[in-house]
Amino acid sequence: MRVHVGVLMQGQGHLNRAAALVRRLRARGHEVSVLLAGATPPAYAEAAIGPFEHLEIANLVVRSGELDAWASARVFLASMPARFAAVRGLARRLARARVDLVLSDFEPVSALAARVAGVPAAGIAGQYRLTRTDAAGPPAGLTRLGSLAFMESFTPGLARYFAVTFSPARATRPRTLVVDPIVDDAVRDATPSSGGFTLAYLYAYPLEQVLGTLQKAPGSYRVYGLDRDEVHGNVTLARTDRAAFVRDLAACDGVILNGSFQGVCEAAVLQKPILSIPFAGQYEELFNAHLITRSGLGLSAPRLTTEAVTRFVTSPPAPRRAPVGDGAAQVIEALGL
Q1: Per-residue model confidence as pLDDT tens digits over 236-252
Q2: Which residues pair with 57 in a beta bridge?
Q3: 273 and 204 assigned to the same domain
Q4: Alpha-carbon distance 22 to 5, whole Å?
Q5: Are 171 and 220 part of one and the same domain?
Q6: Which domain holds residue 219?
Q7: Minimal CA–CA distance to 195: which of 219, 159, 216, 229?
Q8: Same domain, 116 and 160
Q9: What is the pLDDT of residues 82-96, one digit of tens each?
Q10: Strand runs (DSSP E) across the chain, as ranges?
Q11: Do both 192 and 155 map to the same domain?
Q12: In whole angstroms, what is the distance from residue 235 CA to residue 258 CA?
Protein backbone atom coordinates (compact mmCIF):
# COMPACT_ATOMS: atom_id res chain seq x y z
CA MET A 1 0.00 0.00 0.00
CA ARG A 2 1.14 3.56 -0.70
CA VAL A 3 0.95 5.66 2.47
CA HIS A 4 1.78 9.33 2.95
CA VAL A 5 2.60 10.54 6.48
CA GLY A 6 2.44 14.23 7.43
CA VAL A 7 4.24 15.29 10.62
CA LEU A 8 3.93 18.59 12.48
CA MET A 9 7.37 19.97 13.35
CA GLN A 10 6.84 21.72 16.69
CA GLY A 11 9.45 20.40 19.06
CA GLN A 12 10.50 16.81 18.33
CA GLY A 13 7.69 14.75 19.82
CA HIS A 14 5.59 14.46 16.67
CA LEU A 15 8.67 13.40 14.70
CA ASN A 16 9.65 10.65 17.13
CA ARG A 17 6.11 9.29 17.41
CA ALA A 18 5.65 9.26 13.62
CA ALA A 19 9.06 7.67 13.11
CA ALA A 20 8.10 4.73 15.32
CA LEU A 21 5.01 4.16 13.18
CA VAL A 22 6.72 4.73 9.82
CA ARG A 23 9.39 2.15 10.59
CA ARG A 24 6.68 -0.40 11.39
CA LEU A 25 4.85 0.36 8.14
CA ARG A 26 7.97 0.02 5.99
CA ALA A 27 8.90 -3.23 7.74
CA ARG A 28 5.49 -4.55 6.68
CA GLY A 29 6.23 -3.74 3.03
CA HIS A 30 4.29 -0.49 2.63
CA GLU A 31 5.64 2.34 0.49
CA VAL A 32 5.75 5.43 2.73
CA SER A 33 6.41 9.08 1.83
CA VAL A 34 6.90 11.66 4.60
CA LEU A 35 6.31 15.40 4.88
CA LEU A 36 7.73 17.27 7.88
CA ALA A 37 5.94 20.62 8.10
CA GLY A 38 7.09 23.36 10.45
CA ALA A 39 10.44 24.17 12.05
CA THR A 40 13.75 22.83 10.75
CA PRO A 41 14.03 19.11 11.60
CA PRO A 42 16.86 17.96 13.88
CA ALA A 43 19.98 16.45 12.37
CA TYR A 44 18.88 12.92 13.28
CA ALA A 45 15.54 13.20 11.43
CA GLU A 46 16.50 11.17 8.36
CA ALA A 47 18.09 8.45 10.48
CA ALA A 48 14.85 8.27 12.49
CA ILE A 49 12.19 8.46 9.80
CA GLY A 50 14.02 7.90 6.51
CA PRO A 51 13.83 10.18 3.46
CA PHE A 52 11.45 13.11 3.86
CA GLU A 53 10.30 16.36 2.32
CA HIS A 54 10.46 19.44 4.56
CA LEU A 55 8.03 22.35 4.36
CA GLU A 56 9.43 25.32 6.31
CA ILE A 57 6.35 26.98 7.76
CA ALA A 58 5.60 28.84 10.97
CA ASN A 59 3.51 27.34 13.76
CA LEU A 60 3.52 28.43 17.42
CA VAL A 61 5.83 31.13 18.76
CA VAL A 62 7.17 30.36 22.24
CA ARG A 63 9.53 32.67 24.13
CA SER A 64 11.06 31.95 27.55
CA GLY A 65 8.56 29.20 28.29
CA GLU A 66 5.49 31.23 27.32
CA LEU A 67 3.24 31.01 24.27
CA ASP A 68 3.12 34.34 22.45
CA ALA A 69 -0.47 34.09 21.22
CA TRP A 70 -0.47 37.30 19.20
CA ALA A 71 2.83 36.53 17.47
CA SER A 72 1.59 32.99 16.77
CA ALA A 73 -1.59 34.35 15.22
CA ARG A 74 0.36 36.84 13.08
CA VAL A 75 2.82 34.30 11.70
CA PHE A 76 0.05 31.76 11.13
CA LEU A 77 -2.03 34.23 9.13
CA ALA A 78 1.02 35.36 7.18
CA SER A 79 1.73 31.73 6.27
CA MET A 80 -1.74 31.07 4.83
CA PRO A 81 -0.79 31.69 1.15
CA ALA A 82 2.13 29.28 1.48
CA ARG A 83 -0.08 26.74 3.25
CA PHE A 84 -2.74 26.81 0.53
CA ALA A 85 -0.09 26.51 -2.19
CA ALA A 86 1.43 23.55 -0.36
CA VAL A 87 -1.97 21.87 -0.06
CA ARG A 88 -2.65 22.23 -3.78
CA GLY A 89 0.79 20.94 -4.74
CA LEU A 90 0.66 17.99 -2.36
CA ALA A 91 -2.88 17.06 -3.46
CA ARG A 92 -1.66 16.81 -7.06
CA ARG A 93 1.26 14.62 -6.00
CA LEU A 94 -0.97 12.35 -3.90
CA ALA A 95 -3.27 11.81 -6.87
CA ARG A 96 -0.40 11.32 -9.32
CA ALA A 97 1.31 8.78 -7.03
CA ARG A 98 -2.01 7.01 -6.39
CA VAL A 99 -1.53 7.18 -2.63
CA ASP A 100 -3.97 4.88 -0.83
CA LEU A 101 -3.93 6.46 2.63
CA VAL A 102 -2.75 9.64 4.34
CA LEU A 103 -1.77 9.64 8.02
CA SER A 104 -1.49 13.02 9.71
CA ASP A 105 0.36 13.44 12.99
CA PHE A 106 -1.56 16.65 13.65
CA GLU A 107 -0.18 18.06 10.39
CA PRO A 108 -2.80 20.11 8.53
CA VAL A 109 -1.24 20.40 5.04
CA SER A 110 -1.33 16.63 4.49
CA ALA A 111 -4.81 16.34 6.02
CA LEU A 112 -6.24 19.04 3.75
CA ALA A 113 -4.38 17.76 0.67
CA ALA A 114 -5.89 14.31 1.24
CA ARG A 115 -9.34 15.88 1.30
CA VAL A 116 -8.70 17.77 -1.94
CA ALA A 117 -7.29 14.66 -3.63
CA GLY A 118 -10.07 12.40 -2.37
CA VAL A 119 -7.65 10.14 -0.46
CA PRO A 120 -8.78 8.57 2.85
CA ALA A 121 -7.02 10.17 5.81
CA ALA A 122 -6.56 9.36 9.48
CA GLY A 123 -5.20 11.53 12.28
CA ILE A 124 -2.86 10.32 15.02
CA ALA A 125 -2.18 12.73 17.88
CA GLY A 126 -2.36 13.39 21.60
CA GLN A 127 -4.44 16.49 20.83
CA TYR A 128 -7.45 14.32 20.01
CA ARG A 129 -7.75 13.43 23.70
CA LEU A 130 -8.92 16.99 24.26
CA THR A 131 -11.51 17.08 21.50
CA ARG A 132 -12.66 13.48 21.14
CA THR A 133 -12.38 11.71 24.54
CA ASP A 134 -13.61 12.08 28.11
CA ALA A 135 -10.13 12.96 29.45
CA ALA A 136 -10.82 15.85 31.81
CA GLY A 137 -8.47 18.81 31.80
CA PRO A 138 -8.36 21.90 34.01
CA PRO A 139 -10.89 24.69 33.49
CA ALA A 140 -9.24 27.65 31.79
CA GLY A 141 -12.04 29.87 30.48
CA LEU A 142 -11.54 31.47 27.09
CA THR A 143 -8.05 29.95 26.76
CA ARG A 144 -9.58 26.48 26.86
CA LEU A 145 -12.42 27.31 24.47
CA GLY A 146 -10.12 29.00 21.98
CA SER A 147 -7.62 26.16 22.10
CA LEU A 148 -10.26 23.49 21.59
CA ALA A 149 -11.73 25.38 18.64
CA PHE A 150 -8.27 25.71 17.09
CA MET A 151 -7.51 22.00 17.55
CA GLU A 152 -10.87 21.07 16.10
CA SER A 153 -10.18 23.00 12.91
CA PHE A 154 -6.49 22.19 12.52
CA THR A 155 -6.90 18.76 10.85
CA PRO A 156 -10.57 18.69 9.77
CA GLY A 157 -12.61 16.08 7.97
CA LEU A 158 -10.64 12.90 8.69
CA ALA A 159 -12.05 9.41 8.24
CA ARG A 160 -10.47 8.11 11.47
CA TYR A 161 -8.98 9.66 14.60
CA PHE A 162 -6.50 7.95 16.91
CA ALA A 163 -6.28 9.65 20.30
CA VAL A 164 -2.91 8.70 21.79
CA THR A 165 -2.86 8.80 25.59
CA PHE A 166 -0.66 8.13 28.61
CA SER A 167 -3.66 8.06 30.99
CA PRO A 168 -7.06 6.34 30.86
CA ALA A 169 -9.60 7.86 28.45
CA ARG A 170 -12.65 6.78 26.46
CA ALA A 171 -13.73 7.99 23.05
CA THR A 172 -16.77 10.26 23.09
CA ARG A 173 -17.14 10.84 19.35
CA PRO A 174 -17.52 8.52 16.35
CA ARG A 175 -14.58 7.38 14.19
CA THR A 176 -12.29 7.71 17.22
CA LEU A 177 -10.08 5.06 18.80
CA VAL A 178 -8.06 5.64 21.97
CA VAL A 179 -4.61 4.03 21.73
CA ASP A 180 -1.64 3.61 24.06
CA PRO A 181 1.65 5.52 23.70
CA ILE A 182 3.47 5.21 20.38
CA VAL A 183 7.17 5.20 21.24
CA ASP A 184 10.44 3.98 19.75
CA ASP A 185 11.22 0.31 20.18
CA ALA A 186 14.53 1.55 21.62
CA VAL A 187 12.59 3.28 24.40
CA ARG A 188 10.17 0.42 24.98
CA ASP A 189 13.00 -2.13 25.12
CA ALA A 190 15.37 -0.05 27.28
CA THR A 191 16.19 -1.21 30.80
CA PRO A 192 15.58 1.58 33.34
CA SER A 193 18.35 2.31 35.82
CA SER A 194 19.32 5.02 38.30
CA GLY A 195 22.28 7.05 37.11
CA GLY A 196 22.27 9.78 39.75
CA PHE A 197 21.22 12.65 37.50
CA THR A 198 18.05 14.38 36.31
CA LEU A 199 17.34 14.69 32.58
CA ALA A 200 15.89 17.98 31.30
CA TYR A 201 14.49 18.86 27.89
CA LEU A 202 14.10 22.65 27.88
CA TYR A 203 14.24 23.89 24.31
CA ALA A 204 12.10 27.00 24.82
CA TYR A 205 14.14 28.71 27.54
CA PRO A 206 17.20 30.97 27.23
CA LEU A 207 20.49 29.46 28.36
CA GLU A 208 20.91 31.99 31.17
CA GLN A 209 17.55 31.08 32.69
CA VAL A 210 18.23 27.33 32.55
CA LEU A 211 21.67 27.66 34.15
CA GLY A 212 20.50 30.21 36.72
CA THR A 213 17.75 27.82 37.82
CA LEU A 214 19.50 24.44 37.81
CA GLN A 215 22.85 25.54 39.20
CA LYS A 216 21.14 26.63 42.40
CA ALA A 217 19.25 23.33 42.78
CA PRO A 218 20.71 20.20 44.40
CA GLY A 219 21.82 17.30 42.22
CA SER A 220 23.22 16.93 38.70
CA TYR A 221 21.42 17.73 35.45
CA ARG A 222 21.85 16.71 31.82
CA VAL A 223 20.05 19.21 29.58
CA TYR A 224 18.91 18.70 26.00
CA GLY A 225 17.20 21.23 23.75
CA LEU A 226 19.76 24.05 23.77
CA ASP A 227 22.01 22.35 21.17
CA ARG A 228 25.28 22.84 23.08
CA ASP A 229 28.00 20.55 24.44
CA GLU A 230 29.18 22.33 27.58
CA VAL A 231 29.62 21.70 31.30
CA HIS A 232 28.61 24.34 33.82
CA GLY A 233 29.17 22.96 37.31
CA ASN A 234 26.34 20.55 38.07
CA VAL A 235 24.74 21.16 34.64
CA THR A 236 25.85 19.33 31.49
CA LEU A 237 24.46 20.62 28.21
CA ALA A 238 24.08 18.00 25.46
CA ARG A 239 23.60 18.57 21.76
CA THR A 240 20.62 17.02 20.03
CA ASP A 241 21.33 13.30 19.65
CA ARG A 242 18.41 10.90 19.71
CA ALA A 243 20.35 7.78 20.66
CA ALA A 244 22.13 9.60 23.51
CA PHE A 245 18.84 11.07 24.70
CA VAL A 246 17.21 7.62 24.88
CA ARG A 247 20.19 6.25 26.83
CA ASP A 248 20.04 9.17 29.25
CA LEU A 249 16.27 8.81 29.57
CA ALA A 250 16.66 5.18 30.61
CA ALA A 251 19.45 6.02 33.08
CA CYS A 252 18.11 9.20 34.71
CA ASP A 253 16.37 9.51 38.08
CA GLY A 254 13.68 11.85 36.76
CA VAL A 255 12.70 14.06 33.84
CA ILE A 256 12.04 17.80 33.66
CA LEU A 257 10.24 19.04 30.57
CA ASN A 258 7.59 21.44 29.43
CA GLY A 259 4.02 20.25 29.03
CA SER A 260 4.95 18.26 25.95
CA PHE A 261 3.11 15.03 25.25
CA GLN A 262 5.53 12.60 23.60
CA GLY A 263 8.23 13.19 26.18
CA VAL A 264 5.74 12.30 28.89
CA CYS A 265 4.80 9.09 27.06
CA GLU A 266 8.45 8.03 26.81
CA ALA A 267 9.26 8.90 30.42
CA ALA A 268 6.14 7.18 31.70
CA VAL A 269 6.81 3.96 29.75
CA LEU A 270 10.20 3.82 31.50
CA GLN A 271 8.61 4.66 34.88
CA LYS A 272 10.57 7.88 35.30
CA PRO A 273 9.00 10.56 37.54
CA ILE A 274 8.17 13.74 35.65
CA LEU A 275 8.24 17.44 36.48
CA SER A 276 6.07 19.17 33.90
CA ILE A 277 6.38 22.93 33.38
CA PRO A 278 3.76 23.83 30.75
CA PHE A 279 4.17 26.83 28.50
CA ALA A 280 2.15 29.66 29.97
CA GLY A 281 -0.91 30.43 27.88
CA GLN A 282 -1.05 27.11 26.01
CA TYR A 283 -4.02 25.04 27.14
CA GLU A 284 -2.82 21.74 25.68
CA GLU A 285 0.30 21.90 27.85
CA LEU A 286 -1.76 22.82 30.92
CA PHE A 287 -3.96 19.83 30.09
CA ASN A 288 -0.96 17.47 29.92
CA ALA A 289 0.47 18.78 33.19
CA HIS A 290 -2.93 18.34 34.86
CA LEU A 291 -3.14 14.69 33.73
CA ILE A 292 0.45 13.99 34.80
CA THR A 293 -0.36 14.91 38.40
CA ARG A 294 -3.81 13.33 38.30
CA SER A 295 -2.41 10.05 36.95
CA GLY A 296 0.36 9.90 39.56
CA LEU A 297 3.13 10.20 36.96
CA GLY A 298 4.78 13.24 38.50
CA LEU A 299 4.48 16.87 39.51
CA SER A 300 3.77 20.12 37.72
CA ALA A 301 4.84 23.72 38.28
CA PRO A 302 3.68 26.95 36.62
CA ARG A 303 7.23 28.20 36.02
CA LEU A 304 10.80 26.95 35.79
CA THR A 305 12.17 27.89 39.22
CA THR A 306 14.85 26.58 41.55
CA GLU A 307 12.19 25.96 44.19
CA ALA A 308 10.11 23.75 41.87
CA VAL A 309 13.16 21.78 40.73
CA THR A 310 14.40 21.32 44.30
CA ARG A 311 11.02 20.04 45.45
CA PHE A 312 11.02 17.54 42.57
CA VAL A 313 14.55 16.16 42.97
CA THR A 314 14.44 15.94 46.77
CA SER A 315 10.99 14.29 46.96
CA PRO A 316 10.25 12.72 43.57
CA PRO A 317 6.94 10.90 43.29
CA ALA A 318 6.95 7.17 42.63
CA PRO A 319 5.28 7.06 39.19
CA ARG A 320 2.65 4.54 38.31
CA ARG A 321 3.18 2.31 35.31
CA ALA A 322 1.95 3.83 32.05
CA PRO A 323 -0.27 1.75 29.75
CA VAL A 324 1.90 -1.06 28.45
CA GLY A 325 -0.02 -1.52 25.20
CA ASP A 326 1.71 -0.84 21.89
CA GLY A 327 -0.05 2.12 20.29
CA ALA A 328 1.68 1.66 16.92
CA ALA A 329 0.46 -1.94 16.70
CA GLN A 330 -3.05 -0.81 17.67
CA VAL A 331 -3.14 1.79 14.87
CA ILE A 332 -1.81 -0.65 12.28
CA GLU A 333 -4.37 -3.30 13.26
CA ALA A 334 -7.27 -0.82 13.23
CA LEU A 335 -6.35 0.40 9.75
CA GLY A 336 -5.77 -3.11 8.40
CA LEU A 337 -2.17 -2.35 7.49
Answers
A1: 999 988 999 999 999 99
A2: none
A3: yes
A4: 8
A5: no
A6: 186-314
A7: 219
A8: yes
A9: 888 999 999 999 999
A10: 2-9, 31-38, 53-56, 62-63, 66-67, 101-105, 121-125, 160-164, 176-179, 198-201, 221-224, 230-232, 235-237, 254-258, 274-277, 298-300
A11: no
A12: 18
